[in-house]
Specification:
It comes from Crenobacter cavernae. This is Alpha/beta hydrolase. Pfam families: Abhydrolase_1 (PF00561). InterPro entries: AB_hydrolase_1, AB_hydrolase_fold. This protein has 282 residues and is α/β, with parallel strands linked by helices. The chain has two domains: 30 residues; 239 residues, Alpha/Beta hydrolase fold, catalytic domain (Rossmann fold). Helix content is 40%, strand content 17%. The chain is built from eleven helices and eight strands. The protein has an eight-stranded mixed β-sheet, with helices on both faces. Helix 4 crosses helix 5. The longest helix is centred in the N-terminal third of the chain and has 24 residues. It is globular, with a radius of gyration of 20 Å. The N and C termini lie far apart (78 Å). About 5% of the residues have low confidence.
Amino acid sequence: MEVLLKVLTVGGAAYAALLGLVFVLQGHLVYFPDLGRQIVQTPKDAGLAYEAVWLTTEDGVRIEAWYIPAPAARGAALLAHGNAGNISHRVDYAPMFHRLGYSLLLFEYRGYGRSEGRPSEEGTYADARAAWRHLVAERGFPPERIVLVGESLGGAVVARLAADERPGALVLASSFVSVPELAAELYPWLPARWLARYRYDALEALGRVSSPVLIAHSRQDDIVPFRHGERLFAAVKGPKAFLELAGGHNDGFLFSREAWREALGGFLAQHLPAGAMSPAPR
């Protein structure tokens, strides 16, 4: 009996220590800025002209962004990427939006790529707001001509932005309901909901979004289960559409790129104003 008690005591202490470690270091499970700090390509490599700009957030952090203009643009897309890599890994989005007639702003989170600072939940929200202000105030795009696009963690970022502003449309690709919900599924042996210091509650934000919403998700997603996309879709109160992708979490768009472009183009044509914008002076 004494041996059993000692084993249980040591095991309990070890488990408690593990919980404490996870609580303190969970930022390393949410953000992966070091996976691809190097700039591997630019829109120029895709044959597109672009402008590198530096934005200053409301808390004084300088973040990098790339603006890729489309001729006679119908509007602009603002892309928030996932929790790994940087904007140079999202250049493939540029030709797609270019063909659809939308300029694209790829913005970098703080602590990622060449941007200043360290990533945090409130910080990523502030980064997205800085990108939004750039499109509206500096580029002259009316909110109803802007489509917010978020992949994975970026979906929660732009969902919050869409709840606070009123963009022309919101697109969530391979996004999750919230960090506590996803963590509970990925780490069932931990009290993840209780430990979570990060929320990224896309489900709550969607309840406050009035813009049309397109949800894209794959049944083969190996990180964010398909049911997350279904729950997000069910939470949308206004106009909405669902696109089922193919492939894993990080390659779903590669397996269904043409279907993705056609579905996105049809959705934007239905919900955003038709016709090209007059160029706004800067």
